[in-house]
Design brief:
Order of helices and strands: HHEHEEEEHEHEHEH
Number of helices: 7
Oligomer: single chain
Helix content: 25-40%
Distance between the termini: 134 Å
Structural class: alpha/beta
Number of strands: 8
Largest sheet: 6 strands, mixed
CATH class: Alpha Beta
C-alpha cells in the first residue's frame, strides 16, 4: 500500500509566514473571519463606567420645595332683617354647596315673621347659613348668615365672635327691619357695610335718602348690589374686606 505524504511546504523564513498558514494560502492578513468573506468589524466600544443609582446614599436626592402656606381664613357675617336676601347672598357666591338651616313657614308665624307684601318667601333661616369663597391663594372668606328674626337674636353674639367685618343687607322698602343689625354692629365696634339689595333691579329710595333714614355716618360704606348676582355680591364683600383692612391698619398704628 502506497503511503500518503503531506505536501512539501516550504520552510518559513525567520519572522515570516508559514507556508501552510491561512495568510499564505488565501493571500490575506486577517483571521478566520476574513477568510470566510466577512468584513472585519471595528472593536466594540468599552462599556460606560458604572454609576450608583440615585437614592442609595452616594448622591443626595433632589431637594423638595416646601408646601405652600394655606390661605388665611377670614370670617364675614351676612346680617340683616327677615327676608332681605341673606341666604340668597351666601348661596350666590359660595364655592361649595351652602349649608342652610331653612324651615318651612307655617301659620304660627303669621303676624310674627313678615317678609313683606311682594315677597314669595316660604322658608326661613332658623340657625345660620354657611358658605365660603376663595379670594386668592392667600385669602379665603367664610360667610356666616345670621337669622333675621328678633327671637333668634341671642345667636348673634356667638356668630360674631372672631368675625372681621359684616355686610348688612337692607331692603329699601323695609328699612325698619335693618335697624337692629346696624345697632348691634355699632355697639360691638365691628366694621360693617350696608348693602342695599335691589329687588327687581330697582330701589324704593335713593342711596342718599337711605343713608339719612338709617342715620349712619359717612364713614360707613353704603352700596347697592343684587343678592342673586355672584359678581355683584363679590363687589360688596370686597368693600367689607377693605373696611376691615382699614380698621386693622389704624389699630396697628395706634
Amino acid at each position: 500500500m502506497d503511503s500518503v505524504r503531506s505536501p512539501e511546504w516550504p520552510v518559513a523564513p525567520l519572522g515570516g509566514l508559514a507556508g501552510n498558514s491561512a495568510a499564505a494560502r488565501y493571500g490575506t492578513t486577517s483571521g478566520i473571519g476574513s477568510a470566510l468573506g466577512r468584513t472585519e468589524q471595528p472593536p466594540a466600544p468599552p462599556p460606560p463606567p458604572y454609576r450608583l443609582p440615585t437614592g442609595t446614599g452616594s448622591t443626595p436626592p433632589p431637594a423638595h420645595r416646601p408646601p405652600a402656606a394655606p390661605p388665611v381664613p377670614v370670617k364675614i357675617l351676612i346680617a340683616g332683617g327677615f327676608g332681605v336676601g341673606k341666604t340668597t347672598t351666601v348661596g350666590a357666591i359660595s364655592e361649595i354647596a351652602p349649608l342652610t338651616t331653612e324651615a318651612e313657614m307655617t301659620s304660627a308665624g303669621i303676624g310674627v315673621d313678615d317678609p313683606g307684601g311682594r315677597s314669595t318667601k316660604t322658608t326661613t333661616t332658623v340657625a345660620m347659613d354657611f358658605g365660603c369663597v376663595t379670594i386668592d391663594r392667600s385669602l379665603k372668606l367664610y360667610l356666616f348668615g345670621t337669622p333675621g328674626q328678633a327671637r333668634f337674636g341671642f345667636m348673634w353674639e356667638d356668630l360674631a365672635r372672631g368675625a372681621l367685618g359684616a355686610l348688612v343687607v337692607v331692603d329699601s322698602a323695609r328699612l325698619d327691619d335693618c335697624f337692629p343689625a346696624i345697632d348691634f354692629f355699632e355697639r360691638a365696634g365691628l366694621p360693617f357695610v350696608v348693602g342695599v339689595n335691589a329687588f327687581d333691579g330697582r330701589l324704593a329710595l335713593e342711596l342718599g335718602e337711605i343713608r339719612w333714614a338709617l342715620a349712619i355716618g359717612d364713614h360707613v360704606p353704603l352700596v347697592q348690589f343684587d343678592a342673586r348676582d355672584r359678581l355683584s355680591v363679590r363687589d360688596g364683600l370686597l368693600v367689607v374686606l377693605d373696611r376691615a383692612l382699614d380698621r386693622a391698619t389704624r389699630d396697628r398704628r395706634a
